[in-house]
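Today's session is about reading a structure prediction critically. Students often jump straight to the picture, but the first step is always the sequence itself: look for stretches that repeat, for charged clusters, for runs of hydrophobic residues. Only then move on to the predicted structure, which in these notes is written as discrete structure tokens rather than atom positions. Here is the chain we will use throughout the hour.
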Amino acid sequence: MKKIISVVLLILVCLSVFSCCGKETKDDDEILDLTVLAESLRTEIEYTYPMESVEKEVALDSYFVDANDVASVVMYSSGSASAEEVAAFTATSAEAAERICDAAKQRIADQIELYTDYVPEEIPKLNNAIVYQKGLYVVVSVSPDNTKADDIIKEFFK
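Below is the predicted structure for this chain, in token form.
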């Protein structure tokens, strides 16, 4: 009897260990490395101009985001010749994520106003820009293929 109970307990322990390893969706409190996502967006989409890495301070200034709201940020930009950019923020709190998301939407609106006369060909990219928020994460993508960008983002957070 003791042997049967021992075997049953061993099987239950093994099953519980293996069930933890098979997680296919990301929990809201799981810490994600948005560098991987930003790099995927940068390399898997064909941009008009080369995308260059942007320093954290410049990213914060570009989005008018308070440094205290941002745990980390990864940003790539094509410079002023194009509106194309990728920005991925990890916020310090849910409230901070909301503020970052609002700032991202405002940046897109400001870019539309700026590029309307400057480079009007960029307006369709901006009109279809992606601002995605999940938990503490905010991702922005302005690209020639926002459908593909949306797919990459959704797959990352799946």
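Discussion point for the tutorial: The chain is about 50% helix and 20% strand.
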